[in-house]
């Protein structure tokens, strides 16, 4: 009760500075719009936040928020990202975008900015959830990036136009990033990274959570490794891995990773056994090869002839050996 009284006192102190009509007018002037629960553009998945659901959201951009989030993934990570983190975030987001999956992030330096840029390189839309007004370019160096996001996606904020970012607002907006998306991917995060706060919201909301492994010597990946070690996140290394995790069951399976296909892989089992029994340097007689391969003599002679015709083995004065490269 005492905490509620304290909060009420804080809110009353702020009331004189509140100007809803002025905010709406300024938003319209800037090209932003305000959406609320019940509006056609309101994403109903935000209702999963319960009492923490935003009262309204300011949107600035051409995309439709509700439709853009239907097939979307949050890609988050360290602001002080390494070259590895920036590269992986961009490649992962570009792959998602090419496959028709939008990317949601926070518009910050490092992984966030790389995720937005990677998405813009593909076909899908990207959404930046800000800790300030949609008209406030923070960080300032990302101003051109924000303009690109407006043209192909959306800038989203709970804050009215002109609101400046504060440290608590960065943590508060993370719940919106996690709630809007089908799942969250942590690309690179130190133990105390704010990206782990987004990951915690994803877990609380029962959203999919994934993490990208990094070098074991990198402190910037220590948070990702802890998520994987604790089985809180699924290890992913590609956009296909992410789509398999968050996509439709049975429809979005990632192809199994395989090594290179060699010509000898197409040989029949007995033929391959004979080939494995042929020495590389000194020749061996067909009887010796037959015993090593586990086949009878006639079968060994037949397979040796076929292997010689295919260029795998050659006959010498000392018997059969593997054919030397020319």
Distinct helical segment count: 13
Which value, in Å, is the CA radius of gyration? Answer: 29 Å
Oligomeric state of this protein: single chain
Number of domains: 2
Could you give the count of β-strands?
11
Q: Give the topology string: H per helix, E per strand.
A: HHEEHEHEHEHEHEHEHEHHHHEE
Structural class: alpha/beta
The strands making up the biggest β-sheet line up spatially as 1-2-6-5-4-3-7-8-9
* CATH A-level architecture of the largest domain: 3-Layer(aba) Sandwich
Model regions low in confidence, pLDDT < 50 over at least 5 residues: none
**Biggest beta sheet summary:** 9 strands, mixed
End-to-end Cα distance, whole Å, is 87 Å
CATH third-level topology of the largest domain: Rossmann fold
What general form does the structure show? elongated
The CATH first-level class of the largest domain comes to Alpha Beta
Roughly what is the average pLDDT, rounded to an integer? Answer: 89
